[in-house]
Specification:
The protein has seven helices and ten strands. A hairpin with a 5-residue loop joins strand 1 and strand 2. The strands form two sheets. Strands 6-7-8-3-9-10 form a six-stranded mixed β-sheet, with helices on both faces. The protein has a four-stranded antiparallel β-sheet with strand order 2-1-4-5, covered by helices on one side.
Length: 232
């Protein structure tokens, strides 16, 4: 059974711009999928649809068998609790320590205090930040902040991790370190969907690549490459 199914998805904004056109995608549990394409191709729209930040104009989206479009507004947070969402700009809480940023994701779902005390150090160890638990985001490098964002996204064992340009602000060496963390998470069974312009990483990883151009899927390769000149 597919973890994520999108059928007949199109999205036209009020401005009249059409971002996606008749998209059909099936992603199985445990897959690692890169979503690539030129700027303005529809990648960000695709990502936002997954956690219902926006709704499609037509089509259906199912996550783990749940019809995402049929959810009432008060049910959407429960969908998002099953997802780990990672942004290019980290979106950390600057007045909280690394530990507190990650713990906050567990506090939101009312996890028991004992579970939080056990789980947060485990996840910080996984992303190589256990020694930085008491630091604040402003004291960290960009790569370290992205590691905190990853830890926060996976601390509740999500069904699916969604990453939007997670290495976009990082140097190549740091990007490789971040990608190794994603690879490890994926090897542990978590499904990952990542929108990216990072040609080097996509070509190196040899994972499934879905390419979107002008709102259409133009490629879907199980062991794909980026296929475009890198954007700067």
């Amino acid at each position: 059974m597919a973890l994520l199914t999108m059928t007949g998805i199109s999205k036209t904004y009020q401005s009249g711009a059409t971002a996606l056109r008749n998209i059909d995608i099936h992603i199985k549990p445990g897959e690692f999928v890169f979503v690539v394409g030129p700027s303005g191709a529809g990648k960000s729209t695709f990502i936002k649809l997954l956690f219902r930040e926006i709704e499609p104009t037509t089509g259906k989206i199912f996550v783990d068998g749940v019809d995402v479009m049929s959810l009432k507004p008060n049910e959407i947070p429960y969908l998002r609790r099953q997802l780990g969402i990672i942004f290019q700009d980290y979106r950390l809480l600057n007045d909280r320590t690394v530990y507190e940023n990650v713990a906050f994701a567990m506090e939101v779902i009312e996890a028991p205090t004992e579970k939080i005390k056990k789980r947060v150090p485990e996840v910080l160890e996984l992303v190589g930040l256990r020694s930085r638990a008491d630091n604040y985001p402003g004291e960290l490098s960009g790569g370290e902040q992205q590691r905190v964002a990853i830890a926060r996204a996976i601390v509740n064992d999500p069904l699916l991790v969604i990453a939007d340009e997670p290495t976009g602000n990082l140097d190549p060496e740091t990007s490789m370190e971040i990608m190794k963390i994603f690879s490890h998470i994926n090897e542990n069974g978590t499904t990952i969907i990542m929108a990216t312009h990072d040609k080097t990483m996509v070509d190196f990883m040899q994972k499934r690549v879905i390419a979107i151009e002008d709102g259409y899927i133009v490629r879907d390769d199980l062991k794909g490459v980026y296929g475009y000149e890198p954007e700067h």
